[in-house]
Known about the structure:
There is one protein chain. The chain has 139 residues and is of the alpha+beta class. It has three helices and ten strands; from the N terminus they run βββαββαβββαββ.
Amino acid sequence: MRPASTRPRVIPEVELQNSTNPFGLSKPNTAVRLSGVDDVISESLAGAKNGAGNITSNFRVNTDEALALGDKLLGQGYKEVGKAGSGVFEKQVGSQTYRFRIDENSLLGKHAPNEPHVHVEILDENRNILVNNHIPLID
């Protein structure tokens, strides 16, 4: 178990037993409700530090929070990579690359965790993925 200071904050009054996402898929909610985009960013940074690779977030976000997450993670000066409309945005931060992905396959849940989600990815100076955090969507 994580020490109390590093455990995700749980807000009991907004925990969900079941959720239906905006894409019509219903699934039990096994993650806690996000209390702030800072929690997902902190979780992703910790994952990068530990070289966690692919993880599924302990948090869920709604679409507004997902957009705020990308905005806060990347800030000013990010660029879309790949073809126009790819939904993959990145920015160089020191020796690392921060990437926010809100691509069609992720939004449709076509890969793990097999539900609609967005990604926070952090790559090292050689563009190896340190963490690829899959953050499930709710609404």
